[in-house]
Amino acid sequence: MEKYVENKLMSNIRRLRQDLGDGSDLTIRFLEIGKHLTTSVAIARLEGISDEQRLTETVIQPLIESFHYLEPSCSLWEEIQNTVLATAQVRSEALWHKIMEAILAGDTVIFVDGYAKSFLAETKGIKERAIAEPTTQSVIRGPKDSFVESIRTNTSLIRKRVTSKNLRIEPVPSLQKLQTKIELVYLKNRVNPTLLQEIRHRIQQIDKEVILESGELELQIQDKQTTVFPTILHTERPDVVVANILEGRVGIFVDGTPFVLIAPSCFVQFFQSPDDYYQRFDIGVFLRTLRFITFFFSLLAPSTYIALITYHQAMIPTTLLISLYAQREGVPFPPLIEAIIMEFLFEILREAGVRVPTIVGQTISIVGALVLGQAAVQAGLVSTSMLIVVSITAISSYAIPQYNLAISTRLLRFLFMFIAFVLGFYGILLGLFVLFAHLYSLHSFGYLYMSTKLPSIQKATQHRSVWERIFDIEKNDGFKG
User: Fold this and answer.
1) Hey, which residues does 29 pair with through a beta bridge?
2) Nearest 5°: CA angle at 364, between 363 and 369?
3) Residue 10: C-alpha distances to residues 30, 96, 118 (Å)
4) Beta strands in 175-270 (DSSP E)
C-alpha cells in the first residue's frame, strides 16, 4: 500500500527518523515562517552527501528572511516554491518512497506544517575525485583526462566533446529492485534501435539492489557466460567512448565507477590503443599488427618450446639443439613442469606488484624476477632457455592494451602447455582450431564477436532475415551511420 505525507509536521518527522534508524548523519532544523501567524517548517537532510553551503544559501537563508514578509494564506505553498526557495531544482512530492529516495540521494526535504506534501530541493554535494590522467590506459599522444566516480561528471565529458543535438543520455529505469543509476549514451542518428532495446531489456532484468562496479553489470548482461574472453569493452577514457558512439555503439555509464562499458564489442577492439586514433594510418596498422603478434607470443611461446623439446627436435637447428640440451643437463623436471614453475612464479610476482604499495611495487617485480629467476637457474630447477621463453611471454602479455584480454591469454596459456606436452604441435593446432571455432561462435548483443565493424544500413537491409533471427524482431532498419 502506497504511503503519503501527512499534514502534521511532527508525524512526518517521526516517520522519517524511524525509517532512517535515527542515524547520526540525519540533520533536521526547525524554522518559523510567516509575518503574523507563523507556520512551522522542518528541513531534513543527510549530512555528508548534501552540500551544506548550498543548502544555507538557497533554502535556509531565504526561508529565514521570508519571516518578515510572508503571509500565511491559501497561496503559502506556491509562494514558497516560486518566490522563496532559490535552489535551481525544487519540486513538490507527496509519495513517501519518493521522499526517501531523494533524501538518500543527497537532496533536502522540506516539510510545512498543515500540508500533506513536501518540497524536494536539489542539494546533492557528495565529495568527488578530481579529473586526472587515466591510470590503466595511458597514451603517448591524446587527451589526458579520464572518467571519475560521478556519473554526471562523466556524461559532461562526453557532452564537452560531442556538441550534437543527436547525442542522447538516457537513464535506464529498472523493473527490479536495482538502486544504482545507469545511463545509456549514444547518437540517435547512428545507433540501431534494436540494439538499444536489447541493452535496456538486459539491464532491466538484473536482480540486484546495488551495482558497485561496471564489472558486475558486465557479467549480468553479456551474451555468453561460458567463455574466458571479454565480450564487452570497458574504458576510463572519454575519447574512446566518443570514438565508439560515433561508430554506432552505446556507452553504458554506471554511477560510482570510472569505467564505462561499450556495447557491442568485437575481438579486434581489444587490440586497439586510444592513441591509434591520433597516429598516421601506417603507424597505427604497424602497432596493431605488433599487438596481434604479441598476443600469439603470449599464448603459444611456452607451449611451442615444450612441443619442440619433447617431440619435434628435428625442427631445431643442430647447434641450437645441442646448446638447449646442454642447458637442460641436471634439470630434474620435464619441460612442462619447468614451464609451470616459472609461469606460477611470474604470476605471483605480477599479482604482488599490483597489490603492494606503488612506491615499492615496481622494485618488488624487478628484483623478484631477477633474483628468483637467476636463483632457480643456478639451483638447477629450470633451464636458462625456459627462463628466456617465460620472460618473453610475460613481456608480450603487457603489450596487450586491454587487461581483461591479457588475463584470458594467461589462463589459456596453461591449457596449451598441457596439450603441447601430450600431443606436440598436433595438439597446438587442434587447440587453435577449437579456440577459433569458439571465438567465431561468440556474439556481443547479437553481433558477431569476430566481425571487424558494425554492419552499415545497406548490409543490414540486404541480410534482413539474418538480423531478424538474431534479434527476434520483425523489422530491422539497421544503422544510419
Assistant:
1) 43
2) 105
3) 11, 15, 13
4) 182-187, 233-235, 250-254, 260-263
